[in-house]
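Why do we care about 3D structure at all? Because function follows from shape, and shape follows, mostly, from sequence. That is the central idea of this module. The next example makes it concrete: a single protein chain, its amino acid sequence, and then its structure expressed as tokens.
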Amino acid sequence: MPKHVPTVAIVGRPNVGKSTLFNRLVGKKVALVDDLPGVTRDRREGEAQLLGLDFTIIDTAGFEDENALTLPGRMRAQTEAAVASADVALFLFDSRVGILPLDEEIARWLRAGSTPVVLVANKAEGKAGNDGVLESLSLGFGDPVEMSAEHGEGVADLFEALLPLLEPEGYDDTPDEPAPYYDEETGPLKLAIVGRPNAGKSTLVNRILGEERMITGPEAGITRDSIAIDFMWQDRPIHLIDTAGMRKRAKVQDKLEKLSVADALHAIDFAEVVVLLLDATLGLEVQDLKIADRVLEEGRALVIALNKWDVAEGPSSLFNGVRAALDEGLAQARGVPLVAVSAATGKGVDQMIAAAFEVREMWSKRVGTGALNRWFERAVEANPPPAPGGKRIKLRYITQAKTRPPGFILFGTRVDQLPESYRRYLVNGIRKELGFGAVPVRLTLRAPKNPFDDK
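And the structure:
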């Protein structure tokens, strides 16, 4: 049995360096970092390793004293949930600024709880933080760990403070048992939820998980980071990613929003299947088609979900209208799965996830060379390639070079003159007759090398 992996939550007021420390402990820049306070909103988890000590680290939103119904209040509720579930809380403060009233309030809240606390004086490089370190003794957590999350100073001291709390029976440096092996077809489904702001992505994620894991509300653009969560659906593992809303590029002026959109695009690159969530009360817009086109360009399998179906007017005509518009606007993947869902009620959510597993299966499919070329011969016989300038284009054979997304290589002579319409004819045939559905298919044309080309 693999040993238990403890959990550590980072808490503190806004802009004390929590996300910087999170990135330092996971070993890569995962959480968005900016000088603007309040960048982090949802709690983000990552696998941390500190001098051989393994634990799950949770980055939380800046702790603020606001009404529970406001956005900062809902962010605070997420932080409180993270600390309650953690084995240890890292209470971070800015040693250069010193102890502020909000730091004192956080300390009172932590002292009232049962989670062990390690006080961390961040930005303590040099002597600029000395006064803040002395002030922090009044918080009641003893001497703080002095460190610089940005420069990596003090990590050994942090290790010594965490070790007795995470390994109370002594440090066990025996290797864990290897994680269970998953192959590409049966491993965790890497599923990203994308769409315009306020389409209901975080509400949908909460519905899927059965808990208020993501912050939601009427404000557009609440989610900033792409948040990844692992869970099981009908005994099948899923790596679910909630992303920030993507507006038209011309409207994205704010630096932080640009970082959020870049993070969402990175999530698309990482995913196997992408669910594009539409707002059924608004219908299909040009921005939706642009997002869908980006997903297909990156070679990811796509599922379209019409959200807010429980409040949509004329649902039947709306569904048919969106279906027709998708088939026209996404000619390269006509027939992409379209599912009506309601994040508020849960309607259609299971069908959406089932569709995601189905398209991943098509996305991962491989066809034997014999069956592939038998189809190819029939396709060429039914519709021979044109002869531009009276010179015949001879197509010899085809092979599947890769999967995820499926890629094929077509060999022949004068293939550089093959019209795009004929290439589409072959790709559509591959999708329809070989069972690849609406997943993106790549077709590369290749001619044999002429030995006299270099003469």
